[in-house]
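User: I'm writing a short report section on ligand binding and want a predicted complex to refer to. Could you take this sequence and succinic acid and write out the structure as C-alpha cells? A short remark afterwards would be nice.
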Amino acid sequence: MVSVKKTQKVVVLGTGGTIAGTAANAFEQVVYTAAQLGVDQLTAAVPGLDAVLGGRQLVVEQVAQLDSKDMDHATWQRLTHRCAHWLAQEDVGALVITHGTDTLEETAWFLQSVLQPCKPLVMVCAMRPASSSEADGPQNLRDALLVSAQPLATGVCVVCAGVIHSARFVQKVHPYRLDAFSSGDAGPLGWMQSGQVQWSTVYDRSALQMPALAKQVMSSDARLWPVVEVVFSHAGAGRRVVDALVQAGVSGLVVAGSGNGTVHHAVEAALKEAEQAGVRVRLSTRCQEGQMVGKSRLWPDMEGLSPLKARISLMLELLVESGV
Ligand code: SIN
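Assistant: Sure. The C-alpha cells for the complex follow:
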C-alpha cells in the first residue's frame, strides 16, 4: 500500500516497446512485434492496480507507438512537451513512461538533461512481449507505479526486473535476460523488496523548475538540432568514417575510444582535422563498465557518460550555443 495525497494523479505515458508487444502465441518470447497494445491495456494488466495506486487517480496517454530502435528527435521533442505539460500540473505527483528497452537509456538521459524534473519520472520496460504467458511487463509496471508514489523519488529513473536505476548510469547490458540493465560501478538507486521500495541512497527533492533548455527543446524545430554522431576507435580503424561525417556536415563527434580513452592514430588525425574545421569533438570509452581516469586526454570527456549519452549531452550543448 502506498501513502500519497488522495487527490494526486499519476500519469502513464505510452511510447511502445516490447512491453506493448505481441507474438503469435503465448510461448513466443523472441519473435514478436513491439508496440502493439495501447498504454490503457498495459495499465489494465497490472496486478492489484487499485492497491498500487493507493487512491491516486490514474491518467493514461499514448504519446508514441514505436519500436524504440526507431526513436528519433521529433518523438523526444513530443515527449518533452507532454512531460512538461503534466509535470507543471499541481495535482500530478509523478509520471511513468512505458518504453522499449533498446534505446531506453538514451531517452532517460535526454529527459533528465532537458527537464531535470523534481517529481518522479519513472521509465519502465519489459524484455518479453505482453502476449507471453510469462510477461514481465505487468510486474515491472506495478513496480514503476510503486516507485512513482515514493516521496523520496525525484528525477528520471528506470525500473526493470525489480531494480531502480538512475538515468545517468543505466545501460542495457544484455539482449535477452529479464534483468537486462545495469548501473555499473555506480550501482542501482534501489530495488523492490517484497513489494516495497528499498533505496540504496536517500536523495532530496529540489524546487520545481523548468530549465531554459526544456523551453528551447520544445520550441525549436527538431530537424535543426545539431547533428552529433558517435565514431568508434577499433583495430584496423581508418579515417573514412570521420571524413565522411565531416563531409556530411556534422556539428559534433563523440569518439568511443578503446580502454582508458585511447584512439587509433588514423582516427585521431582525422578528428584533429575535423576539430580544426569547427567540429566539436568529445571523448568517451567503449568499455561497458567504469569511467576513464586521469586527465591527460586527447579531448575533454563528458563526465563519465557512455558514448550514447555523451552524444545527447554534446547535442544539447551545441543546441544551447546555436540559439535555434
Ligand atoms: C524496443 O526497444 O522497442 C523493442 C525491444 C524491447 O523493448 O525490449
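A remark for your report: The two ends are 46 Å apart (CA to CA). Residues 307-322 form the longest helix (16 residues).
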